Amino acid sequence: MTAVETADVGIPTDDGTADAYLAHPADGGPHPAVLLYMDAFGLRPSLRAMADRLAGAGYTVLVPNVFYRSGRAPVVELPEFIDPEARPEIFRRLGPVMKSLTPDRAVRDAGAYLGWLARAPEAADGPVALVGYCMGAGLALRATGTFPDRVAAVAGFHGGNLATEDPHSPHLVAGSMTAEAYFAHADHDPGMPAAQQERLEAALTEAGVPHRCEVYTGAQHGYTQADTSAYDEEAAERHWDALLDLLKRTF
Fold this sequence. Notes:
single chain; 251 residues
């Protein structure tokens, strides 16, 4: 793995400054950029470690705190290991914060994050890749369709509510997408049931988006997150293989 440099950075937005984590190879040169969208638990040590791993593979990775309007990360106190007993209390506190990130705000923020990367000396010129986890998969999908000229690839892992019947559902941007897409659903995930999986697949196919959607059998929602009880090492490593393969094809 390549040596990595990291920094905490601030990204100006229409509503303030988003705190973010930047990781990139320590060779002084620009590298293809990846915008990493967090899960609901937010920017924390385990997510920084994931960004470091991507940076070690040769990419410049930006992880914004998408809840910056509610404060710097972590916006709620988190245990070192997030188990089922802790989740209800955490989500009780996170619920209003999550609801405050409306689709309009998410799109405006995505423009700010992508603009910041376009100006960053650590990021190579040209389109970037987006990857999102849990709620971040929806944010990544929505940004991909909104800024098609800036996004060359998008991946989402154990995403929830990607293809609902809501008029603002993320999958409705498929017709504007030009990026290659990869989505890996968790088996028996109540946030992304079979009907939604089929709706997402149909939308991507109808729009002619090059894509692959898979179900990781036996994996729980959140299977990539090493600091939670949902973590599944086999599924997480499968996710790394798929993500790095997508990035190699893209860049």
